[in-house]
């Protein structure tokens, strides 16, 4: 299916919206696990009602259904880590951490496709690590937040790889519905560990009015609309262009964070130097990869 110009604009609009998620997380008073619990629960209930009204076919073969549910569990892990990173640091640090998603993809994809990791991938990975090291030397106030963001980037890479394989053959809302079920189940499975090691045995399950509004925004705009549209776009836009465009997320996010959060998002020169190295490395990688593959 040929790619339409409108798909590229829609892709960048979705990436811009996605970059705002860490900012929203900061304004929700609930901890990360509780946010993801409500986000995934409401998402699959709302989607289930919508699919019932539209009479979409929900029947899937067991193998693909299990893969979609698994991708939902990975999505929950990614979202929880993203929220934790934003909560314990700030939006800019979180976005730089998850900007390593493309680097993770470059290392993980060959394992799925049983190919050797290229020298180019190793070089780009080393450059990204150098960028993270420079950030760590910048008197960074939130090193743990950056580390959690990098780990979130790893799970974001797994989710992206799974979605690329699952995007064809089923309606994007049906895929999103089952993934949200998997994400909610994954969140439930994590709660006992969370209670035992991280929350001193307590859950904060009572959101205030602002929390409710922001969680609804996360569900309608950032879980249902963005997630399903991203799956839909992957049917017409090449993985190369999706990866290249997604690398702009930290740039969009940091600009938005500086506008709305001001001084709390300002960092020193070394932070922006290290961040620039990471962003440039993940942007230039697919360009170099395409160049060498066409030689």
Fraction of residues in H or I helices:
over 70%
Give the SSE string. Answer: HHHHHHHHHHHHH
Main pleated-sheet profile? none
Give the integer mean of the pLDDT values: 82
Q: What's the number of helices? A: 13
| Class of secondary structure makeup | mainly alpha
Q: Give the count of structural domains.
A: 1
Q: Calculate the terminal CA-CA distance, rounded to whole Å.
A: 26 Å
Task: Report low-confidence residues grouped into runs of 5 or more.
Answer: none
Strand content: under 5%
The rounded Rg comes to 19 Å
Number of strands: 0
Question: What is the overall silhouette?
Answer: globular
Q: What would your notes on this structure say?
A:
The chain has 295 residues and is mostly helical. It has one domain (5-293). 78% of the residues lie in helices and 0% in strands. It has 13 helices and no strands. It has helices spanning 5-18, 21-27, 32-54, 62-88, 91-98, 101-113, 119-136, 143-166, 172-197, 209-233, 239-246, 249-261, 269-293. α3 crosses α10. It is globular, with a radius of gyration of 19 Å. The two termini are 26 Å apart.
